[in-house]
Amino acid sequence: MASESSRPIVRSSTVSRPADSIPSSTKGPVVCVFCGSSSGTSPTHRAAAKSLGETFHKHGIHLVYGGGTVGIMGEIARTIVSLSGPDSVSGIIPNPLVQFEQEGRPGTASAQNGCSIDENVYGRMTVVPDMHTRKQLMAQKVMEGGPGSGFVALSGGYGTLEELMEVITWNQLGIHEKGIVVYNVEGYYDGLIQWVRTAVSAGFIAPGNAGILVEALDAEEVVRELKEYKVAEGRFNLDWTQK
User: Fold this and answer.
1) pLDDT per residue over 29-67, tens digit each?
2) Helix 43-59 and helix 219-227, axial crossing angle in degrees, nearest 10
C-alpha cells in the first residue's frame, strides 16, 4: 500500500489540538502503539515488538500504549523502559483492565497512581475509568508530540484493529494529520492491506485516501515512514475546533 501512494485516535470532538504556546517542532516524537495482549503463536511477533522498542530507544521516541504487562504490549514496554527508563513510556489503562490483567499474576509492585503495575518495569501509568477516555488520552499525547509522531499497529486482535481504524477515520476527517503505520510482521496485515485496495477499486475509499495507512516491514522502516509521512490528498479538511 505504501508503495502505491503517499505514506500516511482520538474520539473526535473530545480531543483538543496541541497547545499553540509550545511549538511541536521543539518537542520529541511521541508514538502510540496498538498491539495485542497476547504473544501470538509465532515468536516473530514478540521479536518484532522487542525490535520496535529498541528502535524507539535509538531514535528517542516516547511510547504511548495501552498499559498492558503481558503479550506484545508488555514486551515493547519492558524493552523501552529497560533501555530508556520509565519516563520514556506512558501506559494508559482502564481500571477494569488493571484488575483483569493482574488477577493471579504475581510480582507486581505496590500501588502507584492507583495502579499495581510496576512503573519501573512498564513505564508511567495512568489509570482511567473507561475505554473512551483511554483512547482520547492516548491520541492527545500523540497530537501534542513533535515531528515523527504518529500511530503504529503491531499484531493484535479485535481491539488493535478497532483502535487502528478509528485513528484512520479521524485522519480522513481532518481531526489529526499524524502518520499511521502497520508493522506487517510475517504478512499478518496482508489481508487488511488488500481490503483497502479492494475498497478503493469498489468506490468505498477515495483513491486520494488510500495512502492514509502505510505499511512497514521492519522497525527502522516504521520510524522512517512516520518521519516522512505525507498527508493524504483526499482527506476532509473539516473544522473540529468549533464546540
Assistant:
1) 999 999 999 999 999 999 999 999 999 999 999 999 999
2) 50
CA distance 59 to 223: 8
Cell of 194: 488488500
CA distance 21 to 45: 40
8 Å CB contact between 61 and 148: yes
**Cβ neighbourhood burial of 41 (10 Å; 0-12, 13-18, 19+):** exposed
CB 28 within 8 A of CB 62: yes
Residues in the chain: 243
Query: 160-199: per-residue pLDDT in tens?
Result: 999 999 999 999 999 999 999 999 999 999 999 999 999 9
- The answer to whether 94 and 57 are in contact (CB under 8 A) is no
Least confident piece of the model among 93-97, 130-134, 152-156, 239-243: 239-243
Which three-class secondary structure state does DSSP give residue 99? helix
Cβ pair 214, 181 in contact under 8 A: yes
Nearest CA among 146, 137, 155 for reference residue 34: 155
Contact criterion met (CB below 8 Å) for 184 and 221: no
The phi, psi pair for 59, rounded to 5°, reads: -100, 5
CA 177 to chain CA mean position, Å: 14
Contacts of 150 (CB under 8 A, 6+ apart): 29, 31, 32, 142, 178, 179, 180, 181, 226, 229
